[in-house]
Amino acid sequence: MYNFLKLGMLILALVFFSGCVADRGDRRLVKPLEKMLPPYDNGTIYQAGFNERPLYEEKRARNVGDGLTMTIAAIPPAKKPEKKEGEEEDSRRDRRKERDEELSNIASDALVGNLSMIVMEVLGNGHLFVAGGKQVTVDDEDKYVRITGVVDPNNLTGGNMVSSTLVSDVRIQVDDLRIFSDGTATSYSEGQSTFGNNFQSMSR
To answer: Alpha carbon 39 to chain centroid distance?
Structure first.
């Protein structure tokens, strides 16, 4: 009888303490899914939905990893707005305006001539999400300008080129570039500008 009571108390204690233990769940880190290219079907020559091109069309960027060249239209430098007489401006707002003007001028200096871009993603409508970058030196400081945008493959011309005025959803980010004595480099973002539909917005 004593052993039976002892066993019952032991079971009750186990049930009680097991209820106090928090359920930690699965705490393994989950990596983001990578965009994979469609698999090839062995035994066929042409793959439906992959690398499809018209018969007489010259080579154009259509798939992830393809390159293209963006020709940059002339971009006027940012103009400082005139201060109205008797108007008192907040110092924080002044610093923000000066910073925006500096970033705009850096981007204008970098976006001269042609820029090589890489297709990063093919959107559902067939348009290409492209990205590229360029290093420039401003006041003895190295800057790296990153540009992303969306390109319609139908706007690509001979030589796999597209005008900057035909690139939509343009985003430009300016990074400070630090190069150390051992040859390694690091960068941090100074700011980002979004120019809505295309590069023409930069001149407004």
So the answer is: 26
Is it the case that residue 203 has pLDDT exceeding 60? Answer: no
Q: Residue 35 — pLDDT band, cuts 50, 70, 90?
A: low
Is the confidence at residue 165, as pLDDT, over 70? yes
21-30 long-range contacts, CB within 8 A, separation 24+: none
Amino acid identity, position 87: E
Q: Please check whether residue 61 is in contact with residue 119, taking contact to mean a CB–CB distance below 8 angstroms.
A: yes
Cβ atoms within 10 A of the Cβ of 72, count? 19
Domain ranges of the chain: 67-80+92-203
Rg (CA), the chain: 29
How many Å apart are CA 73 and CA 199, to the nearest integer? Answer: 8
Q: Give tens-digit pLDDT for 71-119.
A: 876 555 545 455 555 455 566 666 666 665 665 665 555 566 788 899 9
Q: Say if residues 177 and 187 touch (Cβ distance below 8 Å).
A: yes
